[in-house]
Amino acid sequence: MSDLINKTSQFFSSGIIDLFIGYKKGRLGEGKPAFFTKPDQLSELIFDENCIVNLAVYLRKPELKKYSKIGILANFGTLRALLQLAAENQITDGQYLILTVADGKVLEFANLKAIEEYVANNLPKPNPERLALLKEIESKSREERWDFWTRELSSCIRCYACRAACPLCYCEQCLVECNQPQWVGVPPTGLGNLEWHIVRAMHLAGRCISCGECEAACPMEIPLGLLTQKLNMTIISNFGQIPGTKREPDYALSTFKVDDKENFIR
Amino acid sequence: MQEFEPKIVAFVCNWCTYAGADLAGTSRIKYATNVRIVRFPCTGRIDYMLILKAFQNGADGVIVSGCHPNDCHYTSGNFHARRRWIVFNELLELLGFDKRRLFFSWVSAAEGAKWANLVNEVVTEVRKLGPYTEYEKLSKINVNSIGELCNV
Q1: A236 touches chain B (CB under 8 A)
Q2: Across residues B29-42, what is the average pLDDT?
Q3: Which residues of chain A fall short of a pLDDT of 50?
Q4: pLDDT of residue A181
């Protein structure tokens, strides 16, 4: 950890960065997002397996515009989010100083290409427990599935924490706030909740980097990550595009192949 | 008792299916009158939100139709739409949505008879299924049931 702190404070003293986004220890031992503007604050900086928050979510906040160069301590999900944001022209190569810690060593990424290589070499397999849960839901009958989701989604209080925690939900005006026409009902009724979760899943289809932040943020513990996970699996198996692995645009729903296969169009 | 007459909404593209439906009319082919056609510039424009809105507003079935692959007036609109439908279809499948009420089809400007057949088939199938009530029930899950959840 001292290696990380030393390196970061060097970046501060040589004037390379004027803000560093990292983690400090939270009350429950979790890695809490922290913003360091002076080297003497860095004694609090930590990085361990409890640092799961995706810090890329802060990069597009207007509050950060006054800083000339920002450093960010990235976990794996954050690295993928950075690649996806670059592919969507939201950040540029070299705009941020990107650090990560791997096997106890501090890694500095020279450019997005280096991140791309690192991500390609370390891409994790999907969590078997999640896959089993998804399989269990899929093996139910249609009515059972509908009842399952109706029950789960009826507890949604529409706090939009899933949206706020997502590094890729960065639209300045979200479709749910549009009231002319109103696409999604505002009060948390069963119907409005279903529509919101369909919209969220569809807007993240082919873009979701599976960091799990949406589900971790949900105060009602709705397994909403399953929806995006299912769509990602569909896209990977049908079209072969894996979100958050390329720095160039490669969005599954804005590209097509002439021989895309389906079995439901008459 | 009077037979149930389903309300069907058809989202069609201007260049193929709308012209196909027009051909069915000028060829004096008779088909079920349950369908309400909404014309769009291209299938690429047919957002999944529109399909949801149709069901929300009381449609018992929805048809989405446009040009065959390679026939799009704008070259690639239907290819993009097809990808979106593949993904949307999977989402509806996982959610347990009643997909028997949602129909996708390719109908060209020359296929007036295919259009008439399609509408007839859809009407027969939806008539068998009966009125669509799941969505209406969903809109009644509201503040009251949240009260139950929180034991207020």
Answers
A1: no
A2: 94
A3: none
A4: 86
Distance CA A134, CA A153 (A): 16
Helices in chain A by DSSP H: which ranges?
2-13, 76-87, 112-122, 128-138, 142-154, 161-165, 190-204, 213-217, 225-239
* Nearest Cα residue to B122 out of B2, B12, B41, B1: B12
Which pLDDT band, with edges at 50, 70 and 90, does B85 fall under? Answer: very high
Looking at chain B, the whole-number percentage of residues with pLDDT higher than 90 is 81
Contact of B90 with chain A, judged by CB distance below 8 Å, is answered with yes
Interchain CB distance below 8 Å, B79 and A256 = yes
What are the chain B neighbours of A262 within 8 Å (beta carbons)?
82, 85-86, 89
ipTM, 2 decimals? Answer: 0.89
Question: What is the DSSP code (8-state) at residue A182?
Answer: B
Question: B2 lies in a domain?
Answer: no
Q: What is the CATH number of the domain that holds B25?
A: 3.40.50
Q: Is residue B13 part of a domain?
A: yes
Can you give the residue ranges of every domain in chain A?
Answer: 2-122, 128-248
Report how far Cα B24 is from the mean position of its chain's Cα atoms: 19
- DSSP letters of B39-94? EES-GGG--HHHHHHHHHTT-SEEEEEEPPTT--TTSSHHHHHHHHHHHHHHHHHH
Q: How many domains does chain B have?
A: 1
Of A155, A189, A231, the CB nearest to B87: A231
Residue B152 is predicted with a pLDDT of 38
- Please indicate, yes or no, if residue B1 is contained in any of the structural domains: no
Q: Which residue of A has its CA nearest to B142?
A: A189
Task: Find, among A198, A196, A205, the residue nearest to A254 by Cα.
Answer: A205
pLDDT tens digits, residue range B120-147?
Answer: 999 999 999 999 988 888 877 765 555 5
Task: Give domain status of residue B35, yes or no.
Answer: yes
Q: Which residue of B has its CA nearest to A146?
A: B96
Residues of B in contact with A198 (CB under 8 A): 48, 52, 91, 95
Q: What local confidence, expressed as pLDDT, does residue B3 receive?
A: 83
A253 inside 8 A of chain B by CB: yes
Q: How many CB pairs under 8 A join A and B?
A: 127
- pLDDT score recorded for residue B150: 47
Domain region containing B90: 8-149
Distance set, CA B36 to CA A16, A185, A201, B10, B119 (Å)? 63, 24, 29, 6, 10
